[in-house]
Amino acid sequence: MAEDSVRHIGISSGLAVLLSDDKPKGNPQKSRLISYCDSIGDHSVERTLEHIFDLPHKSVRPSGSLIDVDFIRSILKKQLPRFQQENDSDCYKRDGLSILDCGSAPNAVVIDNASTRGDIKTIRKPLLVESQTVFSSARANACAWKGKWMYEVTLETSGIQQLGWATVSCPFTDRKGVGDSEDSYAFDGKRVSKWNKDPMPYGQSWVVGDVIGCCIDLDSDVVSFLRNGVSLGVAFDRIQKMRPGIGYYPAISLSDGERCDLNFGARPFKYPVDGFLPIQAPPISRYYANYLLSCLTRLLEVRCLDKPDSAYFEKLRRLRRFAPLKELFYPISHGILEEFFNVIQPGEGSFEYIAWGALPSCFLGIFGIHEPHDYASLDQVLDIFLEFPGSDPLLQHLIVALSCSCKVAPLVLTDCPYSGSYPYLALVCHILRRKTMMVLWWKSPDFEFSLEGFLSMKRPNKQDLHCLIPSVWWPGSCEDVGCESSMMLTMTALSGAMNKIEEMHRRLCSLVIHFVPRATPCQPPGSVFKIFLQNFILKVRGAEHKMTSSNVSNNSVAVSLYTVILHFLSEGFPVEGISGFVKGSGVNLGANVGFLHRGGKRRFPVELFFTGDANCAGARRIGGSLNHLVNSQLFNEEQIKEVQWVEGCMDDEETTVTHSTIQKPCCCSSSDVDDIQIAEDSIGYTSRGLKGFCVPISKRSHTVVTLCNSRSLGDEIVDKPSSSNQSEVDTGCRSLQCPESITTTSELSLEVLREEELLDMMLFLYHLGVAPNFRQAFYYMSHQSQSISLLDDTDKQIRERSCIEQVKRLKEARNVYREELVDCVRQCAWYRISLFSRWKQRGMYATCMWVVELLLVLSNTDSVFCYVPEFYLESLVDSFHALRKSDPSFVSSAIFIKQGLASFVTFVVKHFNDPRILSADIKDLLLHSISSLVQCKDYLVAFEDNKEAIQRLPRALLLAFDNRSWIPVANIILRLCKGSGFSYSNHAGSSSSALFQVLLREACVHNEALFSSFLNRLFNTLSWTMTEFSVSIREMQENYQIGDLQQRKCSVVFDLSCNLAKILEFCTREIPQAFLLGPDMNLRRLTELIIFILNHIIFTSDSEFFDMSVRRPCQYQEKTNRTIILAPLVGIITSLMDASTNLEQMELNDVVGVFVNMDCPATVFQCLLGYNWSNVLRGDASLTKLAKLDEFSSNLRSRTEAIKRTESCVRTGDEEGEDFCCICYACNSDAMFEPCHHKSCHGCITRHLLNGQRCFFCNAVVTSVVKLEPRNPSWETRGWFDY
């Protein structure tokens, strides 16, 4: 033959590749080959087979027989002995390990139930386990005494778990487990410690999805651990040596609710370590099966080299097959797979082992890990596999393996945007486009488990973020100038990867929604997805009762589901034809406009609150538990099945902004959509063969804007039939029946999945998974701001200090602050990538608009409103503030509420004190919302323009000032009254609310009982805070140190006291008659508080110690000195003096006289006059007030001296006849309790009765108070409001 005459130099197995020639010569059945030595010659098909089967050169001899399946199998069987030799070699290396028989499969390593203490339950085979008690421990049934061994643990939760090795003598109790004794060794990534009787710092913190490798080297007596293939170093050395039969067992200890997946070798390791063997021996057929799959891969390489759109052509684009293999592809491929399915046996675990190892690698190699993917080659391989009867369980295992790979796949910066779980998601999405594969997956018992895995997303820890974001920058940073641009490029790359993964999540969920099983009874489109959501919610609800906290459980599935549904409802459904399967009250989705952005008439089926859906059945309602509401028969669901309203009906007509008005909401304004353009090639699906599968977000955003601007959305849904008239789909938690085939859309007549149901589930998913992430994000944002301030303050001190030792300590502290800041910057960057996409902000804004209108409509019907789940309100308020504080911001604060969310102000004002809401936590949530919003001038304007706020807010605030809500109420009142006190600044007046100051004054003046009750609670609260503050200061002075916790407590209580004092100053300035007219009880209580505060503030022995105690981290000294609380006291006194001058024609209480009776020394006010008020006073008006204070001090001093002179003339015997009050010792006992006849002064009795109705001497119930010697009869008949 021609090739025999060609000289071959250095050709070895697999080195020959096929080379194309534009003008082929000789026999067309010949191939032209090239070696590494560039020797070119004509080769036959036999040489091609050698390349495919990785055989030595000329090992395949020419044969006159046909190349058929039998011929191919005969070639392959000749290679079997060499793989059997490798198996024999592995068996020889396994000396030093024994496996106990626990009744499972032969040589299978499992949990030894006899060793278990507590309750460790296998929730999925083979070894996905969960602790069912407070602390559970167990050993495996394998014992090692020599050699190198390892096993892997995949974390399903990231709480307290102790993973490692233990001997049989290690005691397990309900408190002690692996690592708690001398003969056991463990690693705990939650506490970042290694355990051998006592903990020691070791390793890194772990997260959900981490793969922990547990290695023991009994040849070197060393135990070590790995996290995701990265060694954490030697944990323990010189461990105790063992003898045959007595050694170390793999062992675990788990806290309640903790879950992990153990792999002792039944599946290939994710991160194998050279030299270490798995505890369980792999199947003996693995080498041969892996070889066969590699042969199939090489066959496809040869088959696809002439296709310019294949991945192999990209790798070898200058090399093309010359000899045609079209006729030979069938016998070669079928011969390979016949041998493959013949060699793997289900009984020995080969199916699972191959499906978790070589098969995913083979399919990914064919498909490609990045675009463009080779769909044609993958389809060809799937066609061949599906021809074999044994392929079904193998492909089911493959889907589960791809799912679990998504759980553990980390983002890698260099692989972006095709990083993380993207390759596995892209592969499975294409596989599941086949109806047969979708049915096969759905029939699998692991359907829901694997779908959760596909929707998982691994979150990086501190070390992972350092690799993902190597360069950091923050505003004002003095880092390298290149850090900013480097970080921007990194953020862009990671955002691209996140967008790719989220796109795959949407595509997968769309396929599940699109899937219509043939079952009895008939299931509508979307039912599979709906049942999955309900079962997932039920499972998460059950996990809420465990001790596992939300920050250690895998809530990424809930986040992914929320993101998918939000995109569907906001941006439209991405799959062609899928929009017809999801309905929103009969709305046509042909325009691909998101449900949340449609204007006009809206509907909501309130029957969702009564049908017992998974997400609502166990949820607490606004009016209490569901059982309580049902028993009270407040509402009959047959009366109202849905509510209807027109968008914007709850807003003022002149300020209404809807999707149908000329001015659009923030989520649909044209300028905003232009600003949030997302690159089409980074979001849209551009791969060949799937055009139209996903419409880019930017296009859908423009579609929404166009339709909004044309005012066609509202017209489109008018007079359309409601979907709620159709039969309700059963929403119980159940499994669908196995179908025999797929039902087409035309065969369906039942109700489809409603968009309102998706909205209902989305709100609950936000409550479960997204809200904790936002709280964590804002924690890091706040901590970042504090760290920047600390770093700047430290730099300033370093520049000002001259002492070398002080500078050294400051630099050490600076390094700590900088490290914390860098970590915060990376954390904030991660949350910015994962949470604050612009399309998500659009969707959240539209969701807030939709839900707040729904709640306002429902609130008009008491019986229905009580059934609303609490998570509706929680999700609304939390998402509103998450959007408001998002970074980067969605829109400016000036239009955030004005253009779409004015009704939110109406809702929080209307319901923060609503008696129908039983939960105090919900009321606090609404109240804190008001407190947060009024701090910003732009949001305060929204309150001033809101009719509900003007009518309800002042009186409701006074009512809400109670033992629980006084802090947010005080913050709100203080903000409304800001800039009107003694220590106002030039800029404070512009940020206050003159309107609400007038409204508050009118509310107090027109309702004497309400204001008296408020004033009493204000006095009591301020007295309590100042007492707490004085006690804390005294404790720190006695201990001669300032602890962090004590300092934080002091600073918080001090701030609260200052706020309450400023509110009291507002009351004395705006309503002085409450203290100057009528009974002097209010004036006396006010005087007592002033003297108490002055005594503890002015006469503090160590003023520097005082200032250090009240200063918070990142606060400058001028913002925390004692003038902050002294200023409102001066304002109170001067306000009363001004009012006394203005009310000269009336009979007034003597302000100076009350101070004199309280034995207040005049030197106190002289000290006040001597203070440096330059930091807090602005303008001439404050100087006038200081003059008033000087006048008051002079009057007090002269009155005090006059009383002393008078007392010196009074005989001692006259004092014996006085009947002084035994409570205050300042007034005569002029009142008596009935019926017990105990006496006291009228002021003390009246003050006591404000808080209780029992005698403070004998605890008898007081029926009346009799005045013995009324000081002024007119006070008995007239109140101070009558003046």
From TrEMBL:
<dbReference type="GO" id="GO:0051603">
    <property type="term" value="P:proteolysis involved in protein catabolic process"/>
</dbReference>
<feature type="domain" description="RING-type">
    <location>
        <begin position="1221"/>
        <end position="1259"/>
    </location>
</feature>
<dbReference type="GO" id="GO:0061630">
    <property type="term" value="F:ubiquitin protein ligase activity"/>
</dbReference>
<keyword id="KW-0808">Transferase</keyword>
<dbReference type="InterPro" id="IPR001841">
    <property type="entry name" value="Znf_RING"/>
</dbReference>
<keyword id="KW-0479">Metal-binding</keyword>
<dbReference type="GO" id="GO:0016567">
    <property type="term" value="P:protein ubiquitination"/>
</dbReference>
<dbReference type="InterPro" id="IPR001870">
    <property type="entry name" value="B30.2/SPRY"/>
</dbReference>
<keyword id="KW-0863">Zinc-finger</keyword>
<dbReference type="InterPro" id="IPR045129">
    <property type="entry name" value="RNF123/RKP/RSPRY1"/>
</dbReference>
<dbReference type="InterPro" id="IPR057987">
    <property type="entry name" value="TPR_RNF123/RKP"/>
</dbReference>
<dbReference type="InterPro" id="IPR045737">
    <property type="entry name" value="RKP_N"/>
</dbReference>
<dbReference type="GO" id="GO:0008270">
    <property type="term" value="F:zinc ion binding"/>
</dbReference>
<protein>
    <recommendedName>
        <fullName>RING-type E3 ubiquitin transferase</fullName>
        <ecNumber>2.3.2.27</ecNumber>
    </recommendedName>
</protein>
<dbReference type="InterPro" id="IPR013320">
    <property type="entry name" value="ConA-like_dom_sf"/>
</dbReference>
<dbReference type="Pfam" id="PF00622">
    <property type="entry name" value="SPRY"/>
</dbReference>
<keyword id="KW-0833">Ubl conjugation pathway</keyword>
<dbReference type="InterPro" id="IPR003877">
    <property type="entry name" value="SPRY_dom"/>
</dbReference>
<dbReference type="InterPro" id="IPR013083">
    <property type="entry name" value="Znf_RING/FYVE/PHD"/>
</dbReference>
<dbReference type="GO" id="GO:0005737">
    <property type="term" value="C:cytoplasm"/>
</dbReference>
<dbReference type="Pfam" id="PF19322">
    <property type="entry name" value="RKP_N"/>
</dbReference>
<keyword id="KW-0862">Zinc</keyword>
<feature type="domain" description="B30.2/SPRY">
    <location>
        <begin position="76"/>
        <end position="269"/>
    </location>
</feature>
<dbReference type="InterPro" id="IPR043136">
    <property type="entry name" value="B30.2/SPRY_sf"/>
</dbReference>
<dbReference type="Pfam" id="PF25576">
    <property type="entry name" value="TPR_RNF123"/>
</dbReference>
